[in-house]
Amino acid sequence: MKRKIVALFLATCMAMSMTACGGKDASADNASSNDAAGGDDAAADDATGGDDAAGGDDAAGGDDAAGGDDAAGGTLTVGFSQVGAESDWRTANSASMKETFSEANGYELIFDDAQQKQENQIAAIRNFIQQEVDYIVLAPVTETGWDTVLQEAYDAGIPVIIVDRMVNISNEELYTAWVGSNFQLEGEKACAWLEAYAEATGKGSEELNIIDIQGTIGASAQIGRTAGLEAAIEAHDNWKLLEAQSGEFTQAKGQEVMESLLKQYDDIDVVYCENDNEAFGAIDAIEAAGKTVGKEIGKDILVMSFDSTNAGLTDVLNGKIICNTECNPLHGPRVEEIIKKLEAGEQVEKQQFVDEEIFAGTEDVPSIKVNDTEYTVTTVTQEVIDGRAY
Ligand code: AHR
Prior knowledge:
binds alpha-L-arabinofuranose, alpha/beta
């Protein structure tokens, strides 16, 4: 009860001195525990929940208002529900979160690997709520199905930061901020590259038979990348989608899907893999079937990929992947910046897209244009790979 009074007092004071972030109405925010979503309430939330989790010291709620520190020596508790460990990208993403939210940096990170299952993520979030963490960070496996549990976090006054993929919920107030990739733009960039490459190599008018090995169905990364390809196929009379099947963002499933499709189709020109690990599996399947992956349309199977991890770019350098569109996993510092702003009572952007590159194994296409924006295509060299963090 005392905590609630402190929280209400802090929320009211802060709301009087600032506006809410993300275009939200400050007065609406303050009417409920979702004030945290506006940036103000991070302080209030520390008073309501985080302190007690650390030691039940309500007096420390006042300290939280000043700097986010709680009674346990300045430690903020962050519950992170991670999708799983399905890909190299995911491993880099988990490492980034663990490095950032370390004890040395003043955090207690409760890391939960959901093994690609939404029900595990929902259970983890309920557990974080019970533990009265200061912040919940969610990397959602799919976009839908979050309304109930995010309402529970909202009611508990715990700010939720969504990272990587998005959530599709009826009330946007249920989360504080999102940071991640523009997955549809990634797909559009990849297809713009394919079009330019076909033109540059004199094959612009040839028929292209394309296979889409999709990611986890319903994940933003799948939805956006598939949509990018579908739009390009619609726009090209000579591009044909032979089949789209999910490889669940894993190497094993990518290989399995490719093996089965190679038995059905003997005229595949392009395999559009929605992440690097699927591409690794698809390459293994293609080579095992006695076909070649490479750069020549009409002779080789062109493998396209997303993520641009170290191993993915190494396959570009080796001529196995022709084009690799980046999806940046280093979200730890980005999430921390949001939390620091909330702790300082500052506004945060509701949605932040990260800048991403595009890489190719040839110099034929120096740049591409998508929606009137020009993007440089980086030709992969060992130096390029060595200069990257993941
Ligand atoms: O949501 C990001 C996607 O998820 C990455 O492309 C993929 O590798 C990961 O598993």
